[in-house]
Each structure stands twice: as structure tokens, then as C-alpha cells.
Amino acid sequence: MKFIDSLMAFLRAHLTKDQRRFVKFVVVGTSGVPVNLGIVFLVTATCTTLMTAGVRDTLAYLLGIVVSIFTNFLLNSFWTWGDRTARDPSGFLRRLAKFYLVSAIAAGVQFATSVVISSLMRQSDSCTVALYGEYRLYHLLAPLAGIVLGLFINFVANNLWTFKRQDG
Q: What is the pLDDT of residues 144-165, one digit of tens each?
């Protein structure tokens, strides 16, 4: 706990409020990565005979995105932009809708990136190494590339629109 307190004091002393907000956003987004990848793992590890690999992977990527968006919204609403949402507690559902819309755009980028990179990586022996059963290296790398691209879209749009400053 002392380490966390020291780290927070350091960040408060050396970063602006907007920079600290971005750090929080990245921490929340980072927490969504294991949620996203965990869903991808669960689907690819358990749905081995129900569908083709391409359909299974598409479903896994979509479910990973949807679940991680919701957990990220909750954390961002209460921590990253908690100073803004506290003044408007009745706007929870409105913000949730906006967050999903912004996230849908970023998720579209993430999804397209995952599918395209996954397709390209399936052609490379080094990327089709099995990590567990049907779970391959490309199942890890393709979504990570999409997540990074979606990060910047999400932060800017959510900061300016979903959780915008309330004047007054």
C-alpha cells in the first residue's frame, strides 16, 4: 500500500490533471485486456467442435470486446472521470449509451484489426504455435494490436463527449 501511495503522490506532483486522467484510462483499459483475452480463451478453448475456426474466432473476439467494454465503463465512470460523473449521477444510462457508441467505433477498429491480422498470422508457422489446445499465438497477438489502435479513439471521444466537463 505504501508503494501505491508513493506512486500516486509522484503522479500528482509531476503530471497535469489531464495526464493523470489518461494514466487512469490506460490502467482501466489495461484491466480490460485480461477480461477481453480471457473471454477469447474461454471461447476458443471450449468451442472446439461446434464451429469452424474462423467462426469460432470471430465470436470469441466479439464477446471479448463486449464484455470488456462494460467492465471498462464501470471503472472509468467511477474512477477515471469520477470527478465529472459525481455531479451528474442521474446521467449513468446516458453515459453508458455514449460509452458503448464510442466503444463501438473503437471496437470496429479493434475487431477489423484482429480479423485481418489473425488471417495474415494464420499463414505464418511462427504465429500458429499452439499455446493451449486450439488457442494459438495469433489469438493473443491479433486482439492486442486492435486494442492498442482503439485506445486513442476511446480516450479522446470519451473525454470530450461521454464524460465531458459540466460547466457551472
A: 898 888 888 899 999 999 998 8
